[in-house]
Specification:
11 strands; Thioredoxin_domain; 6 helices; 5-stranded mixed sheet; 4-stranded antiparallel sheet; Thioredoxin peroxidase; elongated; alpha+beta; Thioredoxin-like_sf; antioxidant; redox-active center
């Protein structure tokens, strides 16, 4: 089972393309995006890693660290990186976990606990549940979980949009409506009473129904 939102992201030590890391220490006081791939040299994941490398400045602006994962070893990650740069125009500029013992995949519910053996003999289809995205806050809590099929590439613009919402709603007592994007109106959280809301929003709010209180996005 995938880890539920609001639980503490499991800590772990792992070998990566940038050396050994301890996950919680690596996150520090930042946000983190942990995203996984079933195997190196797979076509959809090749496009995803290139896209994410090109978008890294956008994640940097938001204080979000990036960490990839595949069950293949570090030397294969390095060779795959060359292919990604050649075909996508950008190589991964963030660490990639070599989860050869399946430890992280199991901790995060992406592979069954009984899995064992040489990762190089497993196919992408064997590892197809390893297609997840986890957004983790500075408090080390899981804020978002997405699970993608092997045939559908991830939409990183949507992931950036969700991170914008998560960071906004962590700072202000608001929620974001359907299809919200940066700068759009937001909804006053249900935990805020009308008396509190009058103090926070003295200019008032739009109220199509008593449970829908709409205000401009807080600065």
């Amino acid at each position: 089972m995938t880890l539920p939102i609001g639980t503490t992201a499991p800590d772990f030590e792992a070998e990566t393309t940038e050396g050994k890391i301890k996950f919680h220490d690596w996150i520090g006081n930042s946000w983190a995006l942990l995203f996984s791939h079933p195997k190196d040299f797979t076509p959809v994941c090749t496009t995803e890693l290139g896209a994410l490398a090109r978008l890294k400045p956008e994640f940097d602006k938001r204080g979000v660290k990036l960490m990839g994962l595949s069950v293949d070893p570090v030397d294969r990650h390095a060779k795959w990186s060359d292919d990604i740069k050649e075909t996508q125009g950008a190589a991964p500029n963030f660490p990639m976990i070599a989860d050869t013992d399946y430890n992280v995949s199991k901790l995060y519910g992406m592979l069954p606990a009984a899995i064992s053996g040489d990762p190089l003999v497993r196919t992408a289809a064997d590892n197809q549940t390893v297609r997840n995205v986890f957004v983790i806050g500075p408090d080390k809590k899981i804020k978002l979980v997405l699970v993608y099929p092997m045939t559908t590439g991830r939409n990183f613009q949507e992931i950036l949009r969700v991170i914008d919402s998560l960071q906004l709603t962590a700072k202000h007592r608001v929620a974001t409506p359907a299809d919200w994007s940066q700068g759009d109106d937001v909804i006053i959280a249900g935990s805020v009473s009308n008396d509190e809301a009058k103090t926070i929003y003295p200019q008032g709010w739009k109220e199509p129904k008593p449970y829908i209180r709409i205000v401009p996005q807080p600065k």
